[in-house]
Write a structure and sequence with these properties.
It is built from eleven helices and eight strands. By secondary structure, it is an alpha/beta fold.
């Protein structure tokens, strides 16, 4: 029987890629090794900073690198592609075209999950690149859901947690994070999307739980398992 091989283009950052792989393993219902899905991981840590290149207008240069990476994974025989980096979804249409429709779009899948929970107003914690291109906002509004971003000061704290702390190998400042969450709660957000994979790392570091937090990596892991023939378990 042919098995579908999942391709993970990671390294953005490496720790987030590791956590994503662990989520797939942990949430696949198995009795033996062969019940896990087949995965090929390319942790390309040398990819230029996505937010920096997008904000500097260097999209074409970044796309050239990403396209080459996808072609490499395709040559290795992947059936589906998933990228545990929200900001790279700026190129979602290009990825989907390269994969002939077999690209797992983490942003669209997360928006669909929010919709399934009947949430109508949700906060977004993301990089400046994701936020300024309104990637989640577009996906959410297409489903009738209002997307709420932090204030400029709150966004500075989000970026500080992502770049100055998590990407630097630190655990992340919980007080700083809680301040942004309080702001979103005051804006009547029913939930908050962790829309940067470094915040997924933060979540693991601090063992965030509760229905208020929606981790895009969790959604991507579920879809990846199911698309590639595995059985998802909570």
């Amino acid at each position: 029987m042919d098995r579908i091989r999942l391709g993970i283009l990671g390294g953005m950052g490496p720790e987030a890629t590791e956590i994503f792989y662990k989520k797939i393993i942990a949430h696949t219902l198995v009795e033996k090794d062969q019940d896990h899905i087949d995965i090929l991981i390319y942790s390309h840590a040398g990819i230029p900073d996505r937010t920096g290149y997008l904000l500097e207008g260097r999209q074409d240069e970044l796309w050239d690198v990403l396209r080459g990476d996808v072609e490499l994974l395709k040559a290795a025989g992947i059936g589906y592609l998933v990228i545990p980096c929200n900001t790279t979804h700026y190129f979602a249409e290009g990825f989907n075209s390269l994969m002939d429709g077999k690209f797992i779009n983490m942003i669209e899948e997360t928006a669909a999950y929010v919709n399934e929970r009947h949430i109508k107003r949700v906060g977004i914690l993301a990089t400046d690149g994701t936020m300024k291109n309104d990637m989640y906002g577009k996906a959410l509004r297409s489903l009738g859901i209002e997307a709420v971003y932090p204030s400029p000061e709150g966004q500075k704290n989000v970026m500080s947690i992502i770049y100055e702390e998590i990407k630097a190998g630190e655990k992340g400042d919980r007080h700083k994070f809680n301040g942004v969450i309080k702001e979103l709660e005051e804006k009547k957000c029913e939930a908050c999307i962790l829309a940067c994979t470094e915040l997924s790392v933060f979540s693991m570091n601090h063992m965030l739980n509760g229905a208020y937090y929606i981790d895009a990596l969790d959604v991507a892991a579920k879809v990846s398992i199911e698309k590639c023939g595995g059985i998802y378990q909570v």
